[in-house]
Amino acid sequence: MNDAASSAASNVVAARADLSAQQAELADRVARNTPADGLNDTRVPGLALIRATAPSQPLPSVYHPSLCVVVQGRKRALLGDDVFVYDPLHYLVVSMTLPVTGQIIDATPAQPYLCLRVDIDPRVVTELLAQLEPVAAPHESASRPLFLARTSAPLLDAVLRLARLLDTPDEAPVLAPLALREIHYRVLTGELGDRLRHLCEVDGPSQRVARAIELLKQRYAETLRIEELAAAAHMSPSALHQRFKTVTTMSPLQFQKQLRLQEARRLMLVDGMEAAAAGHRVGYESPSQFSREYRRLFGAPPRREIAAVRLASG
User: Fold this and answer.
1) How crowded is residue 168: how many other Cβ atoms within 10 Å of its Cβ?
2) What single string gives the DSSP state of each residue in 167-217?
3) What is the rounded CA–CA span in Å between residue 134 and residue 95?
4) Which residues, including other chains, have CB under 8 Å from residue 239's CB and lie 6 or more apart?
5) Which end of the chain has less neighbouring CB within 10 Å, N or C?
């Protein structure tokens, strides 16, 4: 092996060692700051931590715009027929609100699943896009607002600096925005950054769908006509319906139904609301229809499913 090749090989080994050390430090910081399984909020703006000590069943949930960096264990996310498995070598980007089925597939009490969730700020993305050179739009099949990419050393370094603020929360208001801005930059200029750029393009087709999604989020309990959604998106009803299904894998009506059922589940699980009252709160006039559609999504009627979750969580 010549000197140049030997030097290159040594650099690769050193880079892998640095990456491994960063992952180990992140895992330690997440573990120390997650007192319970599930989502743990932090005092660092834009950062939440997730922990699980056992694999889970597939669970439909609503993902909000975020970057998910796994530092230990593995998780599977399903959007339509697309399957995304992310582990310490990959990160998941969600660029708009989506109902996604998630399943933790690798976690034990000794080696729990640990993940950092960083909120994606559309304002920061817009500011950075104005400074970056434009890129060609990805192929239509790559335009869904959920994608998986390999974690780079520079991205992991920025995430680590954000996580270190967990130990100095008084510094977070000043330093967190700097780390968050770099994280957004690293994703936008990374392996699949062209997808996020395209999906966040001002007044692009995906952002028009995002406007319709925002209206559905605000008025999920109401009966909304496709014409209202199309007007909010500045698209024709037929164009919105087609684009909405391309982006989210479901129709606007199916999307709204999932938002309703997810909110009803939260009301029962977190607020202790009875099933009939929760169904009515989210827009169901018929308790039997609510129970039927809830069972179709979550695998069991409301009372039974909520009781099983509470039993499993101790």
Assistant:
1) 11
2) S-GGGHHHHHHHHHHHHHHHHHTSTTHHHHHHHT-TT-HHHHHHHHHHHHH
3) 18
4) 230
5) C
Mean pLDDT, residues 256-269: 94
Phi-psi region of 36 (alpha: psi -120 to 50; beta: other; left: phi over 0): beta
Contact 118, 63 (CB under 8 A): no
Global pTM? 0.83
CA angle at 37 for the pair 31 and 43, rounded to the nearest 5°: 60
User: What separation, in Å, do the N-terminal and C-terminal C-alpha atoms of the chain show?
Assistant: 59
Query: Residue 67, Cβ neighbours under 10 Å: how many?
Result: 24
Rounded to an integer, what distance in angstroms lies between the CA atom of residue 275 and that of residue 281? 10
pLDDT in tens, 115-169: 999 999 988 998 998 898 877 665 555 567 888 999 999 999 999 999 999 999 9
Residues in contact with 51: Cβ distance below 8 Å, sequence separation at least 6, in sequence order: 30, 31, 34, 36, 37, 38, 40, 112, 113, 114, 115
Give 158-207 pLDDT, tens digit per residue. Answer: 999 999 999 999 999 999 999 999 999 999 998 888 888 877 776 677 88
